[in-house]
Amino acid sequence: MPKYLLLKHYRGGPEPHHPFPPMDQWAPEDVEAHMAFQKHVKELLERNGEYVDAQALTPTRTWVRYGGPDAAPVTTDGPLPETSDLVAGWYMIDVDSHERALELAAYVSSEPGPGREPLYEWIDVREVMSEASAND
Q1: Residue among 119, 131, 133, 129 at smallest CA distance from 5
Q2: Prediction pTM value
Q3: pLDDT tens-digit profile of 62-118?
Q4: Are strands 63-65 and 74-76 parallel, antiparallel or unpaired?
Q5: Residue 80, exposed/middle/buried by CB under 10 A (0-12, 13-18, 19+)?
Q6: What span, in angstroms and rounded, lies between the C-alpha atoms of 41 and 93?
Q7: DSSP for 84-131, written as a single string
Q8: CA distances (Å), 67 to each of 64, 83, 104, 107, in order?
Q9: What is the enclosing helix (H) or strand (E) of 57?
Q10: Cβ atoms of 113 and 26 closer than 8 Å
Q11: Do residues 90 and 6 make contact, with C-beta atoms less than 8 angstroms apart?
Q12: pLDDT tens digits, one per residue of 7-58
């Protein structure tokens, strides 16, 4: 069965359906409802045998690159424009088809936001490369 990564982003992607404020500006009860939905999705995937992993990430980041054979790694907090499209979290799923991955991504997109309104958030769906597809 193919594995897919359903990526959630802090910002970036196509134009948002609803321009909601960042989560740190939401009412506490809205954050709680959002997190409860995330837990519900995990439990649903586990019941269906489709769950591999899920994680939420903080917006704090450090970019690292190789500094050379005799140098320490080079780090920065990333003053690059693409840092505005940081990954907020993901679900790793193992499903029967691409269509099922899209169905689950659409469901994740319905997660509640401020006022418990669905976010209609864009979810980035990526298939995990298998050995077979890597050799194509």
Answers
A1: 129
A2: 0.79
A3: 778 898 899 998 887 765 545 455 778 899 999 999 999 999 999 999 999 999 999
A4: antiparallel
A5: exposed
A6: 11
A7: GG-EEEEEEEE-S-HHHHHHHHHHHHT-B-GGG-B-----EEEEPPPH
A8: 9, 21, 40, 42
A9: none
A10: yes
A11: yes
A12: 887 665 677 677 788 888 999 999 999 999 999 999 999 999 999 999 988 7
Domains and CATH numbers, the chain: 3-134 (3.30.70.1060)
Environment class of residue 3 by beta-carbon count within 10 Å: exposed (0-12), middle (13-18) or buried (19+)? middle
Q: Can you read off the two tokens belonging to residue 12?
A: 């970036």
Task: Give the angle subtended at the CA of 101 by the CAs of 50 and 106, to the nearest 5°.
Answer: 115
Angle at 66 between CA 78 and CA 11, to 5 degrees: 25
Token duo for residue 88: 């907020």
Which residue's structure tokens are 């907090």?
Answer: 77
